[in-house]
Every structure is written in structure tokens, then in C-alpha cells.
Amino acid sequence: MTRVALDYLDFPLGACMRTFHFVLCEHRTCPAPSRVARRLTAIVATLALVFATDRVEALQTDTSSQPAADNEALAGAALFPRDTTLFVHVAGPGKLVERVLEHPLREKIEELEQVRAVLRGPQWVQAKLALAYLEARVGEKWIPALTSMTGGGIHAGFDLKTGSVAIAAHADDEGLLSKTAGEVLGFARGEAETNGKPFKIVSVHNGKIADMEKMSIGRFGKWLLVSNKPDYLRALAERLDRATSNAAHDEDSLAGNVNFRAALGRRTADSDAWVFADLQAIRGAGLAPELFAGSTDEPAAELIFGGVFEALRDAPFAAASLAVATDRIAARLEVPFDAADSPAVREYLLGTGGRGRAPRAMHIPGLIAQVETYRDLGGWWSNKEALFPENVVAGLAQGDSQLSTVFGGVDFGNEVLGALQPGMRLLVKQQEFAKGQSPDIQLPAFALVTRLQNPADARRFRISFQSLVGLLNLSDDGMERPQIEIITSREEGIELTAGEYWAENDTRDGLFIYNFSPALAFQDDYMILSSSRDFAREIALATKTPGNESADSESNTHIHVEADTLRRAIEVNRQALVAQTMIDNGLSRENAESRVDMALEILKYTRDAMIDYRVEPQTMSLEFQLRFAKPSPN
Amino acid sequence: MTTRRQFIQTTFGSAALVSLSRAVPSVLLGASAQARSRAGEKILVVIELGGGNDGLNTVVPHGDDAYYQNRFTLAIPKNQVARIDDHIGFHPSLGGFSRLLDENRLSIVQGVGYPNPNRSHFESMDLWHTAHRIEESAQLGWLGRCIDESPVLQGELPGIHYGQGRQPRALGTRIRPVPSIASLDQFRVNSGDNRRLTEQIRRDLGRPRGSGNQLLAYIHESAQVALRTSERLESVIEDDDDASTFPATQAGRKLDAIARLIDADLPTRVYYMTHDGFDTHSNQAEAHAGLLRELGDATEAFMRNLGERGHADRVAVMMFSEFGRRVRENASRGTDHGTAGPMFLAGGVVNSGPVNKHPALTDLEEGDLRFSVDYRSVYATVLEQWLGVRSPAILGDRYSQLELFRT
Amino acid sequence: MPLDRNDAWLSWQPSQSEPWDRRRAGHLVRRAFFGTTMGDLDRLVDQGLEATLDELFAGAGRESFDDEMRPMERVLSSTQDPRSLASWWLLRMSRTPCQFLEKMTLFWHGHFATTASKVIDPRAMLAQNRLLREHALGSFVPMVEGISKDVAMLVYLDSTDNRKTRPNENYARELMELFCLGPGNYTEADIKELARCFTGWEVRRGKFRFNANQHDRGSKTFLGKTGNFGGDEAVRIVLDHPASSRFLARKLINWLVVDDLPDDEFCEPVARTLRETDFSIGAAIRQILASRWFWCDEQIGSKVRGPVEMAIGLVRGLGVDMNMNQFGDRMEQLGQLPMFPPNVKGWEGGRQWINASTFIGRVNLVAAIVAAGNAGNGFGALARGNDSDAREWVSELVEWLVPVALPQASFDQIVEIAKNARGGLEERVGEVICAIGATPEFQLN
Fold first, then answer.
1. Chain A window 386-415: which residues touch B at a Cβ cutoff of 8 Å?
2. 3-state secondary structure A396-454
3. CA nearest B161: which of B180, B144, B142, B143?
4. Is this structure's pTM higher than 0.90?
5. What is d(CA A431, CA A365) in angstroms, rounded to the nearest whole number?
6. B283 CB within 8 Å of a chain A CB
7. Could C360 and B210 be called an inter-chain contact, meaning their C-beta atoms sit closer than 8 Å?
8. For the ranges A122-126, B165-169, C160-164, which has the lowest average pLDDT?
9. Would an 8 Å CB–CB cutoff place B247 in contact with chain A?
10. Where are the beta strands (DSSP E) in A279-327?
């Protein structure tokens, strides 16, 4: 009976070990860079996921914790070679896990049908059993055990050249570490013997190493080291030995790497997990060449990410950090970047000397999302020959010809794009519909808010807009849509030209086109292009009110999405989303409804999300923040 | 008054025979698809230049002062024209065409159009697609009619539209639908472990089958052709996936795929692709130059590729646009919808060079060129002399033929 | 023993030599349904032939299923994306409790072929779809009357503006050639006269209407009748032509029984039923499905599986949830995207389904369905009996999925896969299904 139970427990552990092997070792057999890259991403993602929790609390009470975390990372880095490609440090993993498990959202996520399926699955149950067994053997619950076994943090390093990976855990409690390691090794030995695989324990002067077929595990005092390469593990052990005997850090270790020290110096205090990547090594290995090429063939990608391409072309390293609190998750990715030295062709998005700043955010009630960005579209256009290869330029020329026709013969690239100031905003808001003109699928209204270099250009734009909207009346696509009437009004210094569907005689309700009353508004030098007349007017009015805008932006691009208004917009379209879910997944109505409703439920726990793209004198960074909310009864 | 069907019967012989030849496996007709050499089967590739190509800036009448008077910003300066003769020359972006001409592989038919020109894209394109037979049936295109009715196109998969989007009406059939193929993957076993599955299918299809069951025998044979195409395509693709000699443009990629299908020995006789964007009302110069370069370079690469693989003499590429553009340019540095324009025919055995005169720029009809060749004459020539199809049944009338092919 | 032609339409009774078993129940399922699970097939075997035929026509669960789908139709109506209609219908086929009704609706869609790529307006396409479903097993008469005023049909055949000075002949031609009589039963003059009857029939703002000012009130002569006919009377005259019942009988027999049709005389008993019941489609189908001819050995596997019936059959049989948009893309590659027939004749079917691109496409489709299933719950339960006896469970799978016997060597090869393929039982069953799907025999129905 016991034997059967043991077999049962043995299986998941074996499976876990095999998974571990796979993650750590399998890349030897698949040298293709993309697969290595994928595995790399998987490792980082797994680590990030597992250890994502918050230290904001700690930060709020004790800002002096920063040097402590840095010293912890340095202690780990001292074990790894100087040219380590990727280094990850997770501080206080036990506490992080605890916080994640205690988060109110966790319960909701576990209710998700897909998650439930995993939780009911045999692997999950067996893993839980294995954990329970291990807890019983070690005599401690796993979270406190994890806390005391990793009190000095978990450190992981990856070396691209040799394909070596190692994870180092720094314990507070040496005894517990020793006991757990013994249990795990016991399993491993059993597994190896059953399968006729090698298993050997070697004593070295500062600890013990177990060599297995595809993995070595070593324990050295308070350190537990795991690696896919025996030699790599031994090298780590030697550095550990030197680091413990010398107070100073080994200059030949990662801790002595100038780039690493520079990156660590920029580490924000609140990060729970921190990643350092040696971009030179990654570039040298030819991984993800598109990312480091410095340019792209996609004009839209250039327009959005051109600055990132610019920085990644030569940046020596990248650093990422992650912080999770009960009220937020924040992630930051940064690379060193000399803004003063940015090239002329990318001034259209970075601004002169990298000083391009997004316009301030507008305060308009009920927005779903807003984007503010610094983009000089005219500059982007006039630099196209320098930015793109010949065939892309040819494609843009064709687009220019067609769009110039649409704009009534006005030169699109130079006279339309070139007439706009660099700062632009994109606003999204749910709209209200008049009775009888309420579409079955209710799209939010969109608006592009720009400023003209020369307000006298307004007339030219208005004429183009009128001819463009007029074209819609001529297009015959078999729908026999109602006709559009174009109305121009001037009030309170706002000039509004808008098309409205004339639907009096149409008996068909719910038409999709009622989502649109295309509008172009002018106020001072502001030009607002919107899918909705009311929204255009609302924004135009807002531009007149001084103090409506918030403080000067420090970002090149800022994106803000409000969860509450987003959820309301989704709720209005629940039926459509259910239909879409049914089609996309081949589901019954009932299953599709529960999926949509669960997504809506989870949105209730979310307050907002922000993305900031910043160019500072020496750094380019991307920040992402997701804030949670206490769900309101409605 | 004969019905359309009676008409077909008298034209092609017994309708029963026509349908029989489709229904009976080709083995039973004594021409196994495998054994048959396709060397004698000529292939037509049609490239539709959508939007109305500006013929005057494609084949440029640089010897004509009227050209320079009407094209005050868009005219190609004399010294930049790629001269064909004292009167005409190619747009400088058409280096591909110039080189094809040097190799005697490009035929130019000038001033192609039709009476009472229609300047609507859709309506004019419909005329070209149906050979002016719109009223007779809502569906049939001129090539579709061949595929439905002509005995010489009764093999498997006679036509392919290569590309995404709506199928051109020219391929509209009533009986045998022409597939639109967006990617070569459609011909390849692409499940998770395709090698293993392909190997299994190969082993299984290698066994004899269906004695006494004609339907099963038919499927078995079709499956064998399919598998062979798939394997051929797989090896062709593995051969030179990284070293494609085609330009990395849309037209280049389409012609690359068509070249691979031809080389994979597909039984297809008619390939059709579109190359859009010629509706250049504004800022024409750069846009048009890019479109022509894409077309010329891709066509040149196509002919070169076919030549290296020994297919050049059995492939002809026909290029047309729904209309040319007005002689005088407009105020937006572009040109508006016009009438007649040039057609091109590339291939190993075409009668290379201009086969007729450039239309006069001084004898205009409401500011537009007068056509000198009816497009249906070009169709008739290609049908009769290239595909071996009797043209009156397809075009609804007898049209004079041109000397487009070397005999 | 070959069936005597005179006995072909007699009612079939199971016998020792022709038993009601999985093979024959599977035959009915493939022809009248899309597909069933193995368990459901056994249920049909257990309940017997009569009860199964009754179940076919009863259409239980139709109302609640229509209720479930209705909100979705409303959503689709307001989009301008005709392509999502195809996804919607494929979803409907894969989930409906009334498979027989749905499959016959697909038949009528091919008969009255209308493509959304021209009609565009989803409302019109959905209205036509409802019309076809409404009458799919009812009477052909109101169906033709309805289709003659159907917005989608009139848009498709360019007949939205039918003026007395210039009657549009398209609809008149197709009504006789494709919908009711077949070629050779009318003249060009008949078409011209019939077209005059439909003058004044228009589409305005997405609705059918009769414009009395544009109707030609003169006398018309066609198909041997003369009078001041309107459109409704004209439809009835066409249906009263002796060729109509023959034509319809042959189309139904072609759909349900065999690709290579026998002569008119052979089909006459079904035509007679249609005439005697004023075109009751249900009566004709019941006669066909109950006939000895339908059940004789030669008929099992005498058709080529259409792409939709093959794909939906497998999806239903395996209980797989699939992304219906991607599924639609594959249907398009295989040449049968519902709502988008290639031309006014609909899908030719039969041997036309198989060619160099579609055979590989079918193999890939089966693999895609299997992959979707493996990502879900897996197919372990489909290996019935003892896992160690691969021959046993493979044989049950083949019997369930393939109408005719596989050559012994092919079968053995698949058993090898079942024994030796990598992965657990789930993956191996999946791989066996892929291999079965790649045999020529699987392509038969």
C-alpha cells in the first residue's frame, strides 16, 4: 500500500524534475537561436510570474531598503561570471508568493473556466500532493519554508555562449535548506535509479554536489545552486568560496561588470524582481535581429517604436524591474540612451535632443482611453527615404497618390501631414445615441486632437473633409444606407463641420452606421477629427478652458485606460461580445456568456492602466502600471 | 434561336462527352496525369493592372511634342526615357521590361481599347473580364467560360487565382469553380508533424485501390497528384527558400509562388493575379514609377526563373488594365480616367517588340486616345494561338488575330 | 446481390444480409446528418430504423436552439461583415440539435445559390436563410414563391429594378433552368415572356415591394399558357410544368443517395410523390430514405463527402470547439464556404470536391480539428476497450468514421500508428484519426 502511494507521489515529482530538465537543458539539442530565445523568454516569464509581488509596502515604510536589495543582488551577482548574458534577482520570494495568494483577484481568477480546468486536472492535484508530502517530510509549510530558504533572494543567470543556466537560492535558515535539499535529492536518486540514469554525489571542500544526467545540484552553506552544467555549477561554487573569504567582490564576476553596476545603480527601490540583460552579447549571438536592426520596414511600427529601435541598436544593456502591491503592479524596462546624440531622422518622434514631450492630458469626464504623444507626422513623412528601404518608399508614394486624391488633390504627405504640430492626442469615449438611431453594436467615439502650424489651413482641411464625407453618399455597397447631410456651425469660437445620417425614412433600426457622425472641429489652432459630432464639440470646448489640462508631461508618449468606463462600454455591447465569443471559440451561448461575464467581473477589480514612454537625458524607459480597485457593488 | 446550351453542344460536340471527360478518371481516358508530359501544355498568366494604368507614361511617345505639351509636370524627359525607337520608349522604372525586350521576350500592343469607352473602373473592368458579354449571364468571365466549356481545359484544376480578396470576374464559371489561393501552404501537408503524416500518406497511397469502385479510383488518383504536387513544392521550396531571385514586393512574391506551382508540375493552365494601385489622380510621378518598377522587375525575375527551369517557352504572361488615362494631366499632378492603353505579353516565344503603332496624340476624342486594337483581338489571339481554344464561342464573335507569337 | 430496378423504391426492412447496424446507421448519419458521436451512433442502432427516421423528422429542440441563436443573428445583422455570416452558420451547424433540418437547409442554399459577397447586407442573407430553413422539409411551392420575392436573391441576380420597358431576364432564366425545370424544357421566348410577369417586382430600402406602375399588364404566353399573368401566377405555372417534379426528384436523390444519377425513368416514383403531395419535400425525402435503393450495399460510400458535411461531421463527432472564423477560412480553401457559393449554380459537388489543392486541404483540416480537440479534453475515451488491443479500438474508429472497408494493408498501417506513435493514448488516438482522414476511403460518403 505504501509502495503504491509512494509511486503515486513519485510521479509528479518526476514530472516536475523532467519539466525542470526541459527548461534548463533542452536547448542544447535545439541550437536554433529563436528556440533559445523562446526558452529564455519562458524562463524570465516564469520567474517573473512566480515571484511577482509587491514591495511597495516596504518602500513606503522604509526607503532605506534600497541599498539592502542592491547588496543582495550584488551578493548573487558575485557568483556569476562577468559576461553573464541574463541575470535575474528576486528579493523575498516567499513574501511575494504570499501576497499573490492573498490578493482578492486570485479568487476571481481561479473561478475562470480555463483556470478551473487546470486546477481540476490530474497534474495539478498530483503536484499539490507532492507538495503536501514534502511539507510533511520537512516539517514545515511550504510558504514559510520558501521564505526562510530564500531570505537572501533568488538569483538566476544564463550564459548564451555555453547555454549554461544556474539558479542560486540564498537561505536564512541553513538547517532547513539542508533538510529540504536532502529530501529532493532523495527523490532524484530514486528516480535516477529506477530509470538507470547516472546519479553521483561529490563532496568538495565548501559543500556537496549531486551530478545527475542533465542537472547538477549543489549546497554550500546557506546557498543552494542548481545548474544544467556541472562545470558551470563548480565555477559558481568557486566564486562563492572566494566571495566568502574576501570581503571585496571578485572583479572577475558579474558584480565587477561596469555595465551591471551601472544598471544596478538605476534600479528603482520598489522593484521585487529585477533583470539585467547584456544586449551586446545578445546582439552578437544574432538573436532577434529585427529588434536590434535600428530600423524597420513597417512604417507604422517605425512611427510607434522608432525610438526603441534607435536605442536598442547600440545600447550595451537593458534592465527590467517588476513591483507588485495589493493595489498595483508596475513594470519598468529601460536602456541607456544618449538623448542629446539622437539622430536628425528621428527627431520627428524624439524631438530635438530627445526633448519631444507629449501634450498634457485633457480632463474630459467619462473617457475610456487617452493617448498623448509627441509625433511630427510631417517630419516622419519627409524623412521616409532615410527611414525605409526603396520598396517601402514606393508603397508610401502610392499611398500618397491615393490619399492626395481623397483629399481633393492636396498633397497628402507635405501639405496635410506637414500642417500639423507634433503634439497629438487620441481620445476615446462611449457615446450616447439618439432614439431610433441606436446601433446594435455601440462603438465608442474616437477623436484625434491636433494643432495646426497655421490656423489659416483650417479651410483647406474643411473642404477636404466635406468632399470626403460626400463621397460616402455616392458609394454603393448594396446596403442602401441612409444619406449623410453635412452641417457646418460656428458658435463660441468653435467651428464644427459634421456629417449626420438622414434616417427619417429608414425603417431599419440598429444600423451600424449610426455609430458615426464624422466631424471636424476647429478652435484657435486646434483641429479635432472625430467619429462623433458631440465628442468633437465637447473636446473643442475643453480646449478653450484654461486649467483644464493637467501638468506638463514628462513622457514622450502616455497612454491611460480607465477600467470603469471600459467595462461600461463592454457591458453595453455584451450581446455582441457573446456572439463574437461563440464564433471565435465555437461555444454554446451559455459558455460564451459566462466567459464574457467573468472578464467583466475581473475588470471590476481593476482601476486603470497606464503606459509611459520616456526619453530622459541618459535613459529611455517604458513603464507599465496596472492599478487595482475595490469593486463597487455595481 | 438556339439556346446557349445547344450552342455549346454544336460548338464542342456532344455535351455528354464534355461532362464524361470530367467524370471519368483520367486513367480511363488513357492519359494518366502522372505519365503525361506537360511540356506541350501552354500556360497563360494574366496580370491585371487595377486602377487604370497611365499608358502614356508606360510606353512614352518621346518623339511626340504633343506629349510634352500635355504632360507639363509628369512628362518623362527625353533623356530619361528608355528608348525603344525614335518615337517611343519605356518609363525609366521599367528596366525589367527593357531587358526583356533585349532578350526578345516582350511583345507590346499599343492603343488597346474598345468602342464607346466606359470610364468607370468597375464597369470597364467588367467589360474586360467578360469580353463585353455582361448581359448574357451574371456570372461568366472570359476565362471562366473557357474553363467551363472548352475541351482543352478539362484537366484537373485548370485555373487558379493567386492572391487574396475577391476573385476577378474574368474567372467566373458556372460549372467548375476556380479556387483563389492565398498561400502555397494550401498545397502542403501542414499539420503538427507533417513529415510523419506525409510519409504515412505516401505509403498508403502507394497501394492499389478501388478495383471496381470508380469513385474511389478517381479520389485515389487525385490524391496521388495532390501528394506529388505537395512533395514537389516542398522540395522546390527547400531548394531555394533563402535565395529567392524574386524582388521582395507583392508582385514579386505572387509571381514567385506561381513560378513554383508551374515548376511543381501542377496541371493548371491559367493563372491570374492582380497588381493594383494604378488609379493615380494625384501626385502620380513617384507612385506610378514604383508600380512600374515592381511590375517590370517581378516579370523579369519570373521569366528568368522559368527560363532556368526550362518552362519559358510554354508560359506567356499577359498584362492589361481596364483603361488608360487622359492625355492631359490634371491640376493635382495626376491623371484622370481615359481610354486606350498598351497591353504587354511576356514569354519565351512571343513576337517581341511593338507589334503596332502608338496612337496619335493629335487625333483625340474628347481629349482621349482613340483605340486602334480591340482588346478582344488580343484575347482571340491568345485563346487560339496560345491555349488552342476556339475563340468565337468564348468571345461571342470572331475577332481578327494579331501576330503576337513566333511561329 | 444487385438490386432489381423495379424493387428499388420498395420500403427497406433490415435483414440478416442487410442488418441495421453501425455501418447502416452511420450511412444514414452521414447522408442526413453531419455526424454523431460514437455513443449517439450506438443509441440509433439500439432504437432501430423506424424510430430513427421518426426522430429525423421530429426536429426536437428546435425552438430552444433558435432562441439561443437569435440574439446573435441580431448582432450579425447590424455588422457589415458578410463573412461572419459563414462563421455563424458553421457554428449553427456544429451545435444544432436538428441536424437533418440544418443539412437540408444547406442543400437548399446550394439549390437557390446566393452569395453574400454580392448581396453584402447580412439582413437579407439571414432572411433568405430563415426562409430556406422554414420550408426545408415542407412544401417546395411556398419556398419558390418566397425565393421569388427574396431580397438577397433579387440583389444577387441584378433584379432589383424590374421595369416594364426593360424586363430583367436573369431571374426568369434561373427560375426555369436552375430552380424548377432544368435546361431543355423551355425556350428563350419562354424566358422573355416569363420575365414580363415579374416586371414591377423591386427592392427598395432592403425590402421587396411591388411597383404597380412598372408592371407589364399585357398578355403573356409561355410554357404553353397564355394570360395576363402576374409573378405569383407565373411561379405556379412553372411549377405545374411536368418537368418540375422530375427535376426536383433528381436533385434530392443526387443530394441524398448518389453522385452519378440514374435515368429519369428510374427516379420517376419520387417525382410522382412530389406531384401527388403538391411538392411535399418531406414526403419525397422519407420515400428516398426508406427505400431499398438507399440502403443497398452499393450506396454506402457512393458519394464524395462534401467539405462542410465532412468537417462539421468530424467536429460534432469528436465534440471539438473550434474558432469558426478560421474554420470558415478552411472551408473556403476546400471550396465550400456557406453563404458564399461560387456561382448561381451552387456547388457542383461529387468529384469536383477533390483536386490537388483540396485533398491536402482536407488532410490538414482533419489534423486541425484533432489538434483543437487535443488542446481541449483529448480523445482518450474514443479508444474503446483495452488500450493494449489497438487493433480493436482502431477498428471501431474506422467503422465509425469511414463508410467502406479500408484495404487490409492500410488498416494494418494505422494499427501500427496506434501502437507506436509518440505520446499518451490521447495523442495516439488523435494521430490515428489524422491517418484515417488521409485515406481515400474517408473522402467517400
1. 391, 393-395, 397-398, 400-402, 404-405, 407, 409, 411-413
2. HHHHHHHHHHHCCCCCHHHHHHHHECCEEEEEEECCCCCCCCCCCCCCCEEEEEEEECC
3. B180
4. no
5. 12
6. yes
7. no
8. A122-126
9. yes
10. 317-324
User: Where does residue B13 fall: left (phi above 0), alpha (psi -120 to 50 degrees), or beta otherwise?
Assistant: left
Q: Which of B11-20, B89-98, C66-75, C113-122 has the lowest mean pLDDT?
A: B11-20
Residue A526 carries which side chain, given as an amino acid letter? Answer: Y
**Which residues, 6 or more positions from A553, have their beta carbon under 8 angstroms from its beta carbon?**
A357, A358, A359, A360, A361, A372
Closest Cα to residue B322, out of B142, B129, B124, B112? B124
Q: Which residues of C touch B257 (CB under 8 A)?
A: none
User: Mean pLDDT, to the nearest integer, of C75-87?
Assistant: 86
Residues B290-312: pLDDT tens digits? Answer: 999 999 999 999 999 999 989 99
The pLDDT assigned to C166 comes to 87
What is the pLDDT at residue C101? 97
d(CA B399, CA B392): 8
In this predicted structure, the answer to whether residue C340 has a pLDDT above a threshold of 70 is yes
Nearest residue in chain C measured CA to CA from B228:
C356
B269: left (phi over 0), alpha (psi -120 to 50) or beta: alpha
CA distance linking residue A241 with residue A234, whole number of Å? 10
Taking contacts as CB-CB distances below 8 angstroms, the residues of chain A near B244 are none
For an interface test with C, the pick among B204, B232, B261, B262 (most C C-beta atoms closer than 10 Å) comes out as B204
Is C71 part of the contact surface with chain A (CB cutoff 8 Å)?
yes
* Residue of higher predicted confidence among B227 and B317: B317
Residue A29 has a pLDDT of: 33
pLDDT band at C310 (very low <50, low <70, confident <90, very high): very high
C-alpha span between C80 and A230 (Å, rounded): 62
Q: What is the pLDDT of residue C126?
A: 95
Q: How many residues does chain A have?
A: 634
Which residues of chain C does B173 touch, with a Cβ-Cβ cutoff of 8 Å? 342-343
B293 touches chain A (CB under 8 A): yes
Could B216 and C354 be called an inter-chain contact, meaning their C-beta atoms sit closer than 8 Å?
no
- Exposed/middle/buried for C159, CB within 10 Å: 0-12, 13-18, 19+? buried
Whether the CA torsion A376, A377, A378, A383 is positive or negative: it is positive
The set of cell numbers assigned to B254 is 505572387
Interface test with B, best of C351, C419, C422 (most B CBs within 10 A): C351
H or E, element range at A562: strand A557-562
Q: Shortest Cα distance from A609 to chain C (angstroms)?
A: 29
Cβ neighbours for B205, distance < 8 A, ≥ 6 positions apart: B220, B223, B224, B227, C440
Do A404 and A368 touch, CB atoms closer than 8 A? no
Cβ atoms of B130 and B174 within 8 Å: the answer is no
CB contact under 8 A, B287 and A398: yes
Mutation for C interface: A509, A516, A573, A583, most C CBs within 10 A: A583
Subunits adjacent to chain A (3 or more Cβ pairs under 8 Å):
B, C
pLDDT for the residue numbered A366 = 93
Which helix (H) or strand (E) segment is C400 a member of? helix C390-401
The number of helices, as runs of H, and strands, as runs of E, in chain B is 12, 12
pLDDT for the residue numbered A68:
78
β-pairing, B159-162 vs B180-181, is: parallel
pLDDT beneath 70: ranges in chain A = 1-67, 246-250, 475-480, 504-509, 546-550, 631-634
- Contact criterion met (CB < 8 Å) for B1 and C434: no
- CA–CA separation, A236 and A227 (whole Å): 10
Return the residue matching grid coordinates 498623448. Answer: A372
